[in-house]
Specification:
Helices cover 40% and strands 13% of the residues. The chain is of the alpha+beta class and 418 residues long. The strands form two sheets. Strands 1-4-5-8 form a four-stranded mixed beta sheet. The longest helix is centred in the last third of the chain and has 28 residues. The protein is globular, with a radius of gyration of 22 Å. It starts with 21 loop residues before the first helix and ends in a 22-residue tail after the last helix. The N terminus is likely disordered. The protein binds flavin-adenine dinucleotide. The site of flavin-adenine dinucleotide has 19 residues, from strand 1 and helix 12.
């Protein structure tokens, strides 16, 4: 058998010859057709339909059987999704983004028992339980490993104290992925441990933060003597950084390669606006739209390649390409929309409306085009800034020398902090 070529964006045909078997594809398609026949997503409640997808092994087809998967190639998810979404099923990632995009792969790989994995994954998949990601802190964003929230062992529990910030959907979350410092005496990357926090438990207080779109999709979370059973630790004590890598690599892949069809995604907003406003068209705007469409298509195909690479092993640094390019492209597309609208672009009807505690799953959560323009500004920050993505790509793909790290090897407690 020919070995697959080395991973990397320069190879235009990754893993050719490693295609999943036709039998697996047929099985996935058959199961998907059965799910939509028995649980029509247009008629049954969404959680019931998504639970049926989980039971059939279609939530993440590459996961093991019994954990929402079928143990087949990850690339076959597209076969299931085409049938499920073609029948009117929702995109689960948009309903429980941190759950589907990050918590599921992290729990699957690092939770301590199959019982725990099952108890977390099924309600996550059905969206009955929303998840959030408690990583960033006021003093630790790009430099995540510098975080200060402490975890101290006490019998069978850990006692947590600290503050998290920018925690998307914490106000709706049942569970949170949390990274904390369990040992301040060792270098910063080595003293971290990873937990699942009960967001409804004592000692967890969530306060809204309003962003420039007028909405409060994210929060500050204050953690005061919150207790977490040791069974809810993911990975070994002190190995939290490696567990966090599972979460972050999957986050970047989810943000950068959302599996759009040709012409779908953000560019479709621009094309729809162009079609609906012949009165505002100019030839310069038409040229710019064509350029944006071409770049969107190149980005879509790059995301396809990233997904193909991820069918063997987990997502790698390729996810950072999609994250970087997609974030900047979104901003350019919405800037084009504002340029087309001219003065109308500054009229944002319904600014700040929408009840943040309301279940918004049935709505187009992206709001009017003005809101999407403002929201796109966050794309180059969330999930790792564009500067940090460029550092990762420079170091891990181009092989450039790493960033200067003045605190390398220093015990965390001796690193000066502002
Ligand atoms: C909409 C939104 C949702 C978010 N949701 C979550 C969430 O659910 N959970 C969560 O944990 N976090 C979340 N975040 C936080 C996000 O991960 C951080 O904002 C991000 O990692 C940057 O950290 P920071 O804000 O502390 O900025 P800093 O790290 O302070 O960065 C400030 C500036 O310095 C630059 N910089 C920093 N270090 C370097 C370097 N080494 N080289 C070059 N430039 C550098 C950055 O690029 C940036 O421009 C969210 C953020 C946004 C905007």
């Amino acid at each position: 058998m020919t070995l697959p070529p080395a991973r990397g964006p320069l190879n235009p045909f990754p893993y050719r010859g490693w295609m999943s078997s036709v039998a697996d594809a047929d099985r996935v398609a058959d199961l998907a057709r059965r799910v939509v026949a028995d649980h029509d997503p247009k008629k049954v409640p969404i959680p019931e339909y998504l639970a049926a997808c989980y039971d059939a092994g279609l939530s993440w087809v590459h996961f093991p059987e019994g954990l929402g998967g079928l143990g087949v190639s990850r690339g076959l998810q597209a076969v299931a999704d085409r049938i499920l979404q073609g029948a009117g099923g929702p995109i689960p990632l948009s309903l429980n983004p941190m759950g589907y995009g990050m918590a599921a792969p992290t729990v699957r790989e690092h939770a301590q028992s199959d019982e725990l994995k099952k108890s977390w994954l099924r309600p996550l998949a059905s969206t009955e339980h929303i998840w959030c990601q408690l990583f960033s802190e006021p003093g630790a964003g790009s430099d995540l490993a510098g975080l200060a929230t402490s975890a101290v062992r006490d019998g069978d529990d850990w006692v947590l104290n600290g503050q998290k910030v920018w925690t998307s959907l914490a106000h709706r979350a049942r569970w949170g992925l949390l990274l904390a410092r369990s040992n301040p005496d060792v270098p910063k990357h080595k003293g971290l441990t990873y937990f699942v926090l009960d967001m409804h438990g004592p000692g967890v207080e969530t306060r809204p933060l309003r962003q420039m779109t007028g909405q409060a999709e994210f929060n500050e979370v204050y953690i005061t003597d919150a207790r977490i059973p040791d069974a809810h630790r993911l990975g070994e004590v002190g190995n939290g950084w490696n567990v966090a890598m599972t979460t972050l690599m999957n986050e970047r892949s989810a943000l950068g390669g959302s599996g759009n069809r040709r012409g779908a995604g953000t560019i479709s907003d621009a094309v729809a606006l162009w079609a609906s406003r012949p009165d505002l068209r100019t030839s310069v705007l038409r040229d710019r739209l064509t350029q944006l469409w071409l770049r969107s298509e190149a980005q879509r195909l790059t995301a396809e390649r990233s997904r193909a690479a991820a069918t063997v092993g987990g997502p790698g640094p390729e996810g950072s390409i999609g994250k970087l390019v997609g974030a900047e492209l979104n901003q350019h597309i919405y800037q084009w929309c504002m340029d087309l609208l001219g003065p109308e672009g500054i009229l944002y009807h319904g600014y700040g409306s929408g009840d943040r505690d309301e279940d918004e799953s049935g709505k187009d959560w992206r709001g009017p085009i003005q809101q999407r323009f403002l929201r796109s500004k966050a794309n180059t920050i969330e999930g790792g800034t564009s500067e940090v993505m460029r550092n990762i790509l420079g170091e891990r793909i181009l092989g450039l020398p790493g960033d200067l790290r003045a605190d390398a090897g220093m015990p965390w407690k001796e690193i000066p902090r502002g």
